[in-house]
Amino acid sequence: MGFIHRRTSKQTSKVKTLLELALSRLTVASRPRLARKSISRSDVAQLLALGHLDRALHRAEQVMEEDNMLEAFNIIELYCNRLIEHAKQLDKPHECGEDIREAAAGIMFAAGWCGDLPELLFARTVLANKFGGDFATMAKEGSGVVNPMLVWKLSGNKRNMEHKKKVVKEIAAENNIQVDFSEFPEVVEQNGRDNAPHQNKLSHEAIYQMDMDESSESDSDHSASHNEDPCDISTSDGSNDGQLEQKKVTACTRR
User: Fold this and answer.
1) How many CB atoms lie within 10 A of CB 13?
2) What is the pLDDT of residues 36-54, one digit of tens each?
3) Any idea where the domains of the chain sit in the sequence?
4) Within 10 A of 32 (CB to CB), how many other CB atoms are there?
5) What is the enclosing helix (H) or strand (E) of 155?
6) What superkingdom heads the lineage (predicted)?
7) What pLDDT is stored for residue 9 in this prediction?
8) Enclosing H/E stretch for 46
């Protein structure tokens, strides 16, 4: 029994060390994302100033991606600190409170989405051994006690139009730029109607013309073969083969 207790304590010490390393790496990983977020927001503002609303909306996806990851980092930092401070509770996972279980599940889910924090993958293995397979499976899937906000920040749809509009409006307000989205959906729909049906129409016309051409060629060939004299045995140079002519004439006479 003492051996099992020492082994569990060793695992707890290991996961604590991994989470401390993850905290150190969080600071480093946040810097380039903060820079990319700032650059992306500046790009959106410039595109709006030039009147390129569609391109500004597309660029807003990068703003959302960096912003969501940075907010996820804040949640992960909170969970790491919580598990480090209450590491002793991990020695008895079945007696852990809901807040510890939420933190453990959050770390396990984030491990699959945060390539910037490789320590979380090793921590997930240790936590899975402690909390069991069912808990680990639900955590990886983002269900169970995993914080829905963390799931959204890491795996949510970055191309949601309403969220992109919200980001663009926010940046436009900061730069005193007026934006109007009322015509944007109509432009997209109009482009869709103008392109695809027109291409289909051209395709049908081309196919119809090809069919007509092939039909005409077929009729011409059929007419030529039908009008050809079966008794004509002239060679290409206009000469006649006497033996073949005699056989052919005999055949025609019998008809």
Assistant:
1) 13
2) 999 999 999 999 999 999 9
3) 2-174
4) 11
5) helix 148-155
6) Eukaryota
7) 77
8) helix 2-49
Ramachandran quadrant class, 97 (left: phi over 0; alpha: psi -120 to 50; beta: rest): beta
Residue 98 near residue 145 (C-beta atoms within 8 A): yes
Query: Which of 106, 93, 96 shows the shortest CA–CA distance to 143?
Result: 106
Binned at pLDDT 50, 70 and 90, residue 184 comes out as: low
Scan for tokens 């002793």, then name that residue. 88
Interatomic CA distance for residues 24 and 30, integer angstroms: 11
Tokens matching residue 47: 């595109």
Query: For the whole model, what pTM was predicted?
Result: 0.68
Phi and psi, residue 74, nearest 5°: -65, -40
| Structure tokens given for 78 | 């909170």
The C-alpha atoms of residue 80 and residue 133 are separated, in whole angstroms, by 21
Range 2-174 classified under CATH 3.40.50.2030 = no
Q: Which amino acid is at 130?
A: K
How many residues are listed for the chain in this entry? 255
Of 157, 158, 153, the closest CA to residue 76 belongs to 153
Question: Which of 5-19, 138-152, 184-198, 225-239 is predicted with the least confidence, judged by mean pLDDT?
Answer: 184-198
Rounded distance between C-alpha atoms, residue 196 and residue 193, angstroms? 6
Contact criterion met (CB below 8 Å) for 149 and 76: no
Q: Tell me how far apart the alpha carbons of residues 73 and 221 are, in angstroms, rounded to a whole number.
A: 76
